[in-house]
């Protein structure tokens, strides 16, 4: 009821004060703060309340909810504007992989899908992340959206988390950098992007109630550091707080997360929106620092709608707090251009150009894990057997709210419709980008036969007759579920049978995250293509034929099996203490001397590189950078990822990634790269001084080709680095 009244109020306001609107909101002379303050002064309480309550923007029969007609149909959210003051509505869509449609939407809007967030992270190239974000933002604009629910930066702590494909890996520096650049790319289109899901929402099992606890310093050095770096590099207009509990409070009601860390320590100025249904009370949420509640209608909670109206009337929430909430929202809308460049569905998406962006990203993020005898790129083959993974039709995508549909209509252009689950957390969607078709195009004259793999005996027989067998292995994952760290069904069995029939077997993986590979020793080559997006089939063919040279590196460790995990049995429920602290991913393997299947940072190429010994440099401000000369000593142009790891005895693990750079080199070319070291990666969070502190002692820095390999280390002691005296604390956390 309240919803209708508020929407009606906004509509009525339009006719009263339209003239004034122009002078208020279009005045571009002030700073975002000044402009937000000036508009706030003109607002009634009802108008302020409009800004803090978001609606689901898809009909939802379960709660008998009909989406507001002013929203963009079939999308995630809508927040009414204030036309009288020139403040546009907020049209929200998901976002991380491309412009999504809600699964329950009657008709899906066609959009370009990027490779998964993990694939983008695997490029280790911030420019790839920015270009992908810019592409998503441009499509969002074309469909009239101005808020993108993107920027997933939850650390991959639990390899079975069903949403890992939306995130950017297990290391805070890599994850924060890649998510930050994706956010910046999106926002370059005059819109707001979120960073999400804040914080410690690292698994889907029990996601609405599980209570995460972690030691204070370890939290700052891991998940929170990833968020902080993403905020610095992406400057998102909004932070989306998550579903889970943290230290007993729901994340959207956590004064620690929303006020202590975000406002006091980080001095952040944007607004906090809740995940859809993640706020559970008015008083706690408002006091903790929540500014906008999202998705009314998908859930019945109306904490920042009716609940807030009542609290204001009772005086349990003061008017000043509502002013603060509205001001933060307005400020971000001004800062990111939503008011000066109002979104409207103008259309005109260049799908061919955008698919090329996606294809390039998929090429940059694919990781060549094994290539015995240089079987790849495919050369002088006459007959290829391709098996499984629906490679004749398309490439797999991840499910849930981030699902992008390639076409319109109810099925949304799914290349393999009808796979289970059909509905939430499905549907399972394949993008119509067939690796087989593209291989045929790129290898004219080669006989390429395809079998779906449902009959392993037939598959083995086909493989035997071919020069090379290529088996596609898939792992689907989705929001709201966690998954096995394995290929779906019995694809492992299929691969083993094929590999026995033909030792020249290549496995192409389309997985949401890390999987076990019981057949790893039996196959000649493995290419991890992740969930490769709209141009994924073409990208895979490019890499197999050598039209493109693999340059991705793992953004997550691939464990040998679950026994190596911090919590081997399965993702936990209820109380979820992070006893491993900041010892996440490769750090866990390093600290416990475990040998994974493939380590973080690992990836092969079709060319070869050398790295000369590293030297350290210090600028006038005392900031360190590592300088390394990289050379391409092979026959092909290719890119090396220089990974700089720092080590110190007193840390959570022997080594931390402290900086990285991707360098593209022609055959015979050498280049010197300077890689700045973020000082927080040489520091520890000191609870007593509430800041980053560099301990005195011995440190070493090495350039490596993965997290667990040995590089030639340069050692130094802190006494020599006057900028970091013992106990020196960096200015702000
Ligand atoms: C997800 C968010 C998403 C929102 C809106 C939630 O279920 O956790 O990531 O942005 O839905 O679709």
Strands, helices and their partners?
Blueprint: H1 2-25, H2 32-42, H3 45-52, E1 53-57, E2 75-79, E3 90-94, H4 117-122, H5 126-142, E4 147-149, H6 172-187, E5 192-198, E6 211-213, H7 216-221, H8 223-234, E7 238-241, E8 245-246, E9 249-250, H9 255-265, E10 271-274, H10 283-288, E11 293-296, H11 306-314, H12 319-335, H13 351-365, E12 367-371, E13 383-387, E14 395-396, E15 430-431, H14 435-442, E16 447-451, H15 456-465, E17 468-475, H16 491-501, E18 505-511, E19 525-528, H17 536-545, E20 575-577, H18 586-591, E21 609-611, E22 615-618, E23 624-632, E24 638-648, E25 655-665, E26 670-676, E27 684-686, E28 691-693, E29 698-704, E30 713-717
Parallel strand pairs: 1-11, 3-4, 4-5, 5-7, 6-8, 6-20, 7-10, 13-16, 13-17, 17-18, 18-19
Antiparallel strand pairs: 1-2, 2-3, 8-9, 12-19, 14-15, 21-23, 22-23, 23-26, 24-25, 24-29, 27-28, 29-30
Helix pairs in contact: 1-3, 2-12, 3-12, 5-6, 5-13, 6-8, 13-17, 14-17, 15-16
The structure holds beta-D-glucopyranose.
